[in-house]
């Protein structure tokens, strides 16, 4: 392993009983709850996560004042490692972002590993190190976890299940139903990067410029917007189903129409080229480090200034607005002056991208 945290996991000098020392791969005993499970937790997961994690099945943690936000998610991305990230940091960032989209300050995470028998322990260690590094970078603690092993052929390497807990400050109410006619729709940066980064590895695609996942924890960007005094009605990280799915869900929830300005959509050339090659709609491609924000028109300059002053929002741009017409529907105005309906995806264009 090449990460700085990997030095904490010394596979050569484990004090584990046989067969751990002689077995560099996951075996069924690692999920049995006995000595092998305990050694795996003690020598692999605890060093990777840091001292904050409880070796038990639950953790008792303090909470600041405010309302509690809770999120849960699962990650099955294939491949497990891709340009710009891995399933480990993706799981941490994705869970943090689910909390952040309600305006919450993320505090604690749990991580459960579902391992396929035969997976190299070095791979598990690499992912665990990515989990620990991403959590530390975001300022959150992994406080508890779990490990299960399924027999060879019943899984696909490593799956992760997460839960997150955060606190929503008093006076902050961010939810889809608050979208209203006249709201401006802002996106924090380029569209479709994560999905194409994963597909480039999975399908062996090559582009003139490299495409790396945009996976990132967005809570500090949200905090910057709220700290600047922006009146944020709705936040959403457009992951599975992309921008199209997120906007359709919000339009239906708030019973408003959404009109996009298609020429304003920040779709990189590499993403557009890949979508053209694969027959995909960039608006339906997943993102993992971008957010959509709905704010009243009068609050848009303040929100944009705060977003553009943050590294994760430097490319923030207005892409549309909420309207009274066609409630529950999303349309895009094309460069030729026409309009097209932006439909909710029927299924996943790109399965297993998170």
Automatic annotation (TrEMBL):
Q: What is this protein called?
A: Hydrogenase expression/formation protein HypE
Which family does the UniProt entry place this protein in?
Answer: Belongs to the HypE family.
Database matches in CDD domains? HypE
Q: Which Gene3D superfamilies match?
A: PurM-like C-terminal domain, PurM-like, N-terminal domain
Task: Tell me where in this chain the PurM-like N-terminal domain is found.
Answer: 57-168
Among PANTHER family, the record links this protein to: CARBAMOYL DEHYDRATASE HYPE, HYDROGENASE ISOENZYMES FORMATION PROTEIN HYPE
Q: Where is the PurM-like C-terminal domain?
A: 181-326
Q: Which Pfam families match?
A: AIRS, AIRS_C
The signal peptide annotation in the UniProt record is none
